[in-house]
C-alpha cells in the first residue's frame, strides 16, 4: 500500500480526494493536514510514501512546508497539487524540493497515476509546467554544462532521466547507495539545477535521452 499524507486547507477537497484515493486497491490516505505547519509535523512523524501538498495554506504555505520537510528528510516524495500555474509558484515549489507538480483541474485518476509514478521514482509535471521550465531554460541560454560531467556522472544522469531511484541505480551499477547520492549531488551541482526533476528536463532539452 502507498501511504499518503494530504495537506490542503479546503476540507471538502480533502474529503473528496482522500475518499477517491483510499478506494484505490494500492493506496491509503493515512493522515490529513489543513496547514503547512501541521503537514511538516505529520510528515516527519509518519514518513508517508507520498505527500500531496497544496500551495496556499494558513500558518505556513506549501512551498515553505516543502522546504522544511526536505531539510529534515531529503528522500521525501512531495507532489504539489494546486490551482496555481504562476511562475512565482511553480519555480519556488520545484526548487524547494517538490518531486511532481499537478493541477487541481486534473482528473482524480490522473492524480492517482501521478502518485504511482512518483512512488516508483519518477517526476510528473503538468505539460504547462514542463513548457514553462523549458522556456525559462531557453531564455537563460544554458550552455552544455553536461560536458563537465565524468563518464560515471553522465551514466548516473541518464539513469535518473529513466526514472530510476537511487536504490535501483545502486543495484544496476553495483555501487553503494551512499556513492549514488554523492554522484547525484555532483551532477546537480555541475548542471546548476536544484533537483532531479530539473536534471531530467536538462537531459531531454539537450537530447541526451529520447
Q: Key features?
A:
single chain; 210 residues; alpha/beta; Rossmann fold; Arc Repressor Mutant, subunit A; 2 domains; five-stranded parallel sheet; 10 helices; 54% helix; globular; Sig_transdc_resp-reg_C-effctor; Sig_transdc_resp-reg_receiver; WalR-like
Can you give a write-up of this model?
Its main location: cytoplasm. InterPro entries: CheY-like_superfamily, NreC/VraR/RcsB-like_REC, Sig_transdc_resp-reg_C-effctor, Sig_transdc_resp-reg_receiver, Tscrpt_reg_LuxR_C, WalR-like. This is Response regulator. Pfam families: GerE, Response_reg. Residues 142-207 form the HTH luxR-type domain. The protein is of the alpha/beta class and 210 residues long. The chain folds into two domains: 2-126, Rossmann fold, CATH 3.40.50; 142-205, Arc Repressor Mutant, subunit A, CATH 1.10.10.10. It has helices at residues 11-22, 36-46, 62-72, 87-96, 108-119, 127-140, 151-161, 166-173, 177-191, 196-205, and strands at residues 2-7, 27-33, 50-53, 78-82, 100-103. A five-stranded parallel beta sheet has the order 2-1-3-4-5, sandwiched between helices. α2 packs parallel to α3, α6 packs across α10 and α7 crosses α10.
